[in-house]
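FAQ

Q: What does a record look like?
A: Structure on top, sequence underneath. For example:
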């Protein structure tokens, strides 16, 4: 038979053992109340971290897609369809294989950085096609002879991302934006 002293050195005799058990049972309600107060805060932090991870992944995917679309637009590869306005849009959409991003919902804008000509893609964001400017090559005519410098193009994208686990009063969506600026490597 096990006595109280062998279980815990401070407990001596049955009376002290009974008092200790009674006291521990009385704290059960307080522990439950404390748990009920802390759990919502803990869940808010956990789901906030999950949401942050998802949104951060989507932002990184957008950044990479815009950079890739802009890079393919400025290289001197005459046979590349990625040099046209619609080609840039398609390149950006093709790179959006990230976490729950629907490429059809991503809007892309291609502009010339501080200069304009007839080869530009326009100034508005587009989801599917640049319409009448779809075959334009924004880097054509980009070399500035007066200053002997090549000019740049800007590829921007924006996407309204849903927040996976939204908790009132926090927003349920967030707009992600990305921008890539590259210098044209050709002008002819």
């Amino acid at each position: 038979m096990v006595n109280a002293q062998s279980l815990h050195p401070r407990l001596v005799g049955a009376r002290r053992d009974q008092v200790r058990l009674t006291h521990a049972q009385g704290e059960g309600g307080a522990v439950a109340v404390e748990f009920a107060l802390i759990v919502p805060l803990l869940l808010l932090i956990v789901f906030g971290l999950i949401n942050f991870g998802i949104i951060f992944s989507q932002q990184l995917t957008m950044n990479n897609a815009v950079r890739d679309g802009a890079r393919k637009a400025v290289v001197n590869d005459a046979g590349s369809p990625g040099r046209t306005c619609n080609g840039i849009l398609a390149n950006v959409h093709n790179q959006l294989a990230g976490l729950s991003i629907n490429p059809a919902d991503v809007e892309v804008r291609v502009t010339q950085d501080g200069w304009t000509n007839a080869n530009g893609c326009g100034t508005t964001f587009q989801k599917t096609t640049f319409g009448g400017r779809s075959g334009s090559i924004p880097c054509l005519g980009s070399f500035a002879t007066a200053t002997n410098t090549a000019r740049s193009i800007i590829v921007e994208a924006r996407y309204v991302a849903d927040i996976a686990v939204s908790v009132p009063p926090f927003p349920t969506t967030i707009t992600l934006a990305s921008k890539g600026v590259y210098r044209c490597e050709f002008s002819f």
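Q: Is there anything notable about this one?
A: The chain is about 40% helix and 15% strand.
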